[in-house]
Design a protein that fits this description.
alpha/beta; six-stranded mixed β-sheet; 37% helix; globular
Length: 235
């Protein structure tokens, strides 16, 4: 059973209700779906539609059993400047309904993984952008969700953090979680995604495996970047 199914006829904002249209896809357990497209193509609007953040949505979005408690990792850190890292984790754990034992075990594991143990009691406003982005990863993985919605996760991360993030995604997928990830890092997406949604001008121009994408653009053996370029030429 899919962790999320989306059949969006149109969605957008007041005064412009059709920013995206004819968006149909699903994410299966263990699958990593790459949401690919140029700036302004509709990737962020698609994510906002899934999150219930748009005033205008025509269509249906349904989550699988347990997946209603999804995890969202945004492109830009969203933090309270007067709270420490640990206080952010405590606040998130409370909102998620985690037991104290589960929270502490998971938090300690993640702080070690992302090398943030020594700064747990520091104000997050004193952190670099890269460190703040690591905090968003820690918050996102604090609860073992059935669906992870990730928006441009590689921005600001150093190579070690990217490695740790990808390893964590692999572990969660092995557990059966599904992932929808928007990214511009196409060489990495080609290596790690099981399927793709290529979005252009608010609609899906190609979807499926890399081989499906190659057939859609008519370039056998092409890289994801080459397919991306061919299908979005002129934008």
């Amino acid at each position: 059973m899919a962790v999320v199914k989306a059949s969006i006829e149109s969605a957008g904002y007041k005064g412009r209700a059709d920013v995206i249209h004819d968006i149909h896809f699903e994410v299966e357990p263990g699958e990593l779906v790459g949401l690919i497209g140029p700036n302004g193509a509709g990737k962020s609007t698609t994510i906002k539609a899934l999150l219930g953040l748009l005033p205008e949505v025509k269509g249906d979005i349904s989550f699988g059993e347990g997946a209603a408690h999804y995890a969202y990792i945004p492109e830009h850190p969203v933090l309270y400047e007067n709270l420490t890292l640990w206080e952010h984790l405590e606040l998130a754990a409370s909102a998620m309904g985690l037991s104290d034992e589960d929270f502490r075990e998971r938090a300690e594991e993640l702080l070690v993984r992302y090398r943030l143990t020594e700064v747990r009691h520091h104000l997050t406003s004193s952190f670099s952008k890269g460190m703040q982005q690591k905090i968003m990863l820690v918050l996102g993985f604090l609860h073992r969700a059935e669906l992870y919605i990730v928006d441009e996760p590689f921005i600001g991360l150093d190579p070690k953090a990217i490695r740790d993030f990808l390893a964590m995604l692999d572990r969660e997928r092995e557990r059966g979680a599904g992932v929808l990830m928007s990214t511009h890092v196409l060489d990495t997406a080609e290596k790690i995604c099981s399927s793709f949604l290529l979005v252009s001008e608010g609609g899906i121009v190609a979807s499926g495996t890399l081989e499906d994408i190659r057939q859609a653009c008519g370039i056998p053996g092409a890289s994801l970047f080459e397919c991306f370029t061919a299908l979005t030429e002129g934008e």
